[in-house]
Design brief:
Layout: H1 14-26, H2 30-43, H3 48-55, H4 59-72, H5 74-77, H6 91-103, H7 109-120, H8 126-135, H9 155-167, H10 169-177
Helix pairs in contact: 1-2, 2-3, 3-4, 9-10
Length: about 190
C-alpha cells in the first residue's frame, strides 16, 4: 500500500473537532464519530493509510472520507443512507389496520397475520408486529378459559393428592382446620 500525505482542509479547529466528536457520541452517531476521529488523525499528521488503520477502515474509504471532508466539512462526513428500510405499511395503511383490528375484536395473532397478508400483501415477523401494535396502544390479550380443556376431570383431586404428598402431615392438618388453605411454592 502506498503511503502519501493528504492535504486536509481545516474546516474546524482541533478543539471544535473534539467538541463535534463529543456531540456525535451523545447523539449516538457512531459512523460520524469514526469519521471525525479519522479527520482528527489527519490533523495530527497521519498519512491516509495510517489514519484509516487507526479507525479500522479500508484505504478506499479513507480516500473517500478525506475528499468528503475537504468538500463539505462535517456535513460531508455524515452518512447518506437512510438508516432503516422503509416501513412495509404506510402510516395510513397501519392506521387503517388498527381501526380494523379495534372494530373486529377479538383477533388471534394468526388471524392478524392473515389479514395483513391478504389485504396488504406483506408479512411481518411476529415479534415485530407485536411491538408495532403495542406502540400503537394495542395488545394481544389472552381470552381466559374457565377450565383448560386438556385437564383431567379429577384435576382437583390430583392436585390435593400431590400437595398432601409434597407437604406431608402438616398439610392434612391444615386442610382439616381451614376450608381453603394457602400454599406458596412451585410444584412439578
Amino acid at each position: 500500500m502506498k503511503s502519501h500525505r493528504f492535504n486536509v482542509t481545516e474546516h474546524l479547529s482541533e478543539e471544535e473537532l473534539d467538541r463535534m466528536i463529543n456531540e456525535a457520541q451523545k447523539a449516538d452517531e457512531p459512523s460520524l464519530v469514526g469519521r471525525l476521529y479519522f479527520v482528527m488523525n489527519l490533523y495530527a499528521g497521519d498519512v491516509l493509510e495510517g489514519a484509516a488503520r487507526r479507525v479500522g477502515v479500508s484505504q478506499a474509504n479513507s480516500s473517500r472520507w478525506a475528499h468528503a471532508w475537504n468538500d463539505a466539512g462535517v456535513d460531508g462526513l455524515r452518512p447518506s443512507f437512510g438508516g432503516r428500510p422503509p416501513p412495509k405499511l404506510s402510516d395510513m395503511q397501519f392506521a387503517e389496520l388498527c381501526k380494523i383490528l379495534k372494530e373486529g375484536q377479538p383477533w388471534t395473532p394468526r388471524a392478524i397475520h392473515t389479514l395483513i397478508e391478504d389485504r396488504y400483501g406483506v408479512t411481518y415477523d411476529s415479534a415485530h408486529l407485536s411491538r408495532k401494535l403495542r406502540e400503537s396502544g394495542m395488545h394481544y390479550v389472552i381470552k381466559p378459559r374457565p377450565m383448560d380443556p386438556r385437564s383431567p376431570e379429577n384435576a382437583d383431586e390430583i392436585l390435593a393428592e400431590r400437595l398432601a404428598k409434597a407437604l406431608g402431615e402438616e398439610y392434612e392438618k391444615a386442610d382439616e382446620q381451614e376450608d381453603d388453605p394457602v400454599v406458596l411454592g412451585f410444584f412439578r
